[in-house]
Amino acid sequence: MSVFNVDKKINSLKKLFHESSDFASRTLDKNGVKLGFVYLKSIIDGDQFSMGIFEPIQTYTGEITFDNLIKKVIRCNDVKEVKEEEVIENILKGGVIILLEGQGGKFLNVDILSYPTRMPAEPPTSPVIQGPREGFVEDLKTNITLLRRSIQSKDLVLKSLKVGRYSNTQVCVAYIDGIAEQKVVDKVISKLKKIDIDGIVDSYYVLTFLQERPNSLFKQIGSAEKPDIISAKMLEGKVAIIVNNSPIVLTVPFVIFEDFQNSNDYYTNHHYSSLVRFIRLFGVLIAVISPGLYLALQLYHYNLLPLNFLITIADTTLGLPFTPFLELLFVFLLFQILYEVSLRLPSYLGLATSVVGALILGDTGIKAGLISPPGVIIVALAKIALYTIPEESSQLTVLQVIFIILGGSLGLAGLITGMIYFINYLNSIDSYGTPYLAPYSPRIPKDLKDGVFKSPVTDMKRRPKAFRSKNKVRLK
Description:
Blueprint: H1 6-16, E1 23-30, E2 33-40, H2 46-59, H3 66-73, E3 79-82, H4 87-92, E4 95-100, E5 107-111, H5 140-150, E6 156-163, E7 169-176, H6 182-193, H7 203-210, E8 222-224, H8 227-235, E9 239-243, E10 249-252, H9 270-299, H10 307-317, H11 324-344, H12 350-367, H13 373-386, H14 393-410, H15 412-428, E11 430-431, E12 434-435
Antiparallel strand pairs: 1-2, 2-4, 3-5, 4-5, 6-7, 7-9, 8-10, 9-10, 11-12
Helix pairs in contact: 5-8, 9-13, 9-14, 11-12, 11-13, 11-14, 14-15
């Protein structure tokens, strides 16, 4: 066994950490043996270090060996021997490294990681009237605990990886063995291992690498902030990706109709849930099509409009300095600016922003003859309808602009062509072996029980066929 000096090793580690202010070390002479303690004081529990490690060693009267420290002295749960090449990694993970004079190549690691974490609470993005109200937080361990509480099964598998050259972010792949398709699991793990980036700050960084088509406009990875939603998706055969420092958990495979569903749908009457889902679908159509359709009818197909409505539009747009196309773009831009401002302003300025936006810019703009009431109503309706599916709002906003341009330049022909193109494009997307428009294209009759229209839970006896889960039976 090689002999080394504790003080020299501590100084060496201190230099490796560039003498950071939170790098801490202590030494202790006990029973003729010198011990060293190395840790980062910013991420360990100081009280646990004092009462569980340092004080017990001080009062111990027996022989100081690694074996005695593990079995008789240290009062912490996670204690293990580590190799020299694992020392830095364990320090960064919140461990206290114990060194013994004269024993090189062997080190003791005591994990007492501790840092501020947010308590699980109802996420602002997923409020429910009935059902669980807790959500994921930014701590990986807490999120895994919440998931374990939802799925108390030995078949819940958790695979941990590290991603990011500097951040060393822990990423956990979770799935239920016997339900999830192993090919999907292997593909996800393979993609994560190939990520070579300096740091992972949030799950969105990982999301980009997991997408089958990274440059596509449309969302291809599912996401949620609530354990009950993620648990339900995993029970359907999906794979969850939990990223440390992020409350957003990702899931694959993903189909677009997932975003038309809401956790409230499963805690209320199925007839009501079906009605609400249909309204969401109708809301998306209004959000995307209505501004472009208004332009197309006003500029090219005004003969299709009822006479009274046509007269109203003609009266309100008479004398405007902008063409209908520029006017609608201006109103759209105005609403988008107000939205961006409302997101970033402190809450106490929100009311002032609403007053300025609604009264001064809206009402005064109409009275000044810069914009027309129909234009404001159409854009406002489209913007409100956009948030029937908040998860798709960013994609739908881009589609709104595209259809405004198509409707303003090519009329109904442009709108119809655009719709055909995007439907065909959506039909070509494949998410980890699952068709993006399933269960409608291709049509999977048994999966339609939880599509736009929802059946009672007692009727959904088999897992969705689109996800190719191993165990097909959900209810016997």
